[in-house]
Design brief:
By secondary structure, the chain is mostly beta strands. It has no helices and eleven strands. Strands 2, 4, 5, 6, 9, 10 and 11 form a seven-stranded mixed beta sheet that branches. The radius of gyration is 14 Å and the shape is globular. The N and C termini lie far apart (40 Å). The relative contact order is 0.32.
């Protein structure tokens, strides 16, 4: 059974930091492209960051320099370190695992709420 479970969300003041985690099971974690998405109320889902199996990373311009994606294949876990948080970062953050090819898949977790407010 495939599971992607996010944790670490919460309420944080503007300028603060938060680290999200996503634990995966039932997938070829080390072979997966791991992504973080977010969706704010009334807005479309937005891609935030990606980390490929080789270690390459990409970030949305809106978070570049403030967010860092990383993975621990031994623990089947991907993290998103967020700093200098802004009110516009408020959203439900979810992780996504993608693998291409004959045994490919595309799974997403339920998400965790991040609220940036004073």
């Amino acid at each position: 059974q495939v599971q992607l479970v996010e944790s670490g969300g919460g309420l944080v003041q503007p300028g603060g930091s938060l680290t999200l985690s996503c634990a995966g099971s039932g997938i070829f974690f080390s072979m997966s492209i791991m992504r973080w998405y977010r969706q704010a109320p009334g807005k479309q889902r937005e891609w935030v960051a990606s980390l490929n199996p080789g270690g390459g990373t990409n970030y949305a311009d809106s978070v570049k320099g403030r967010f860092t994606i990383s993975r621990d294949n031994a623990k089947n876990m991907v993290s998103l370190q967020m700093s200098s948080l802004k009110s516009e970062d408020t959203a439900v953050y979810s992780c996504n695992a993608v693998k291409f090819g004959p045994t490919g898949y595309d799974y997403r977790g339920q998400g965790t709420q991040v609220t940036v407010s004073s």
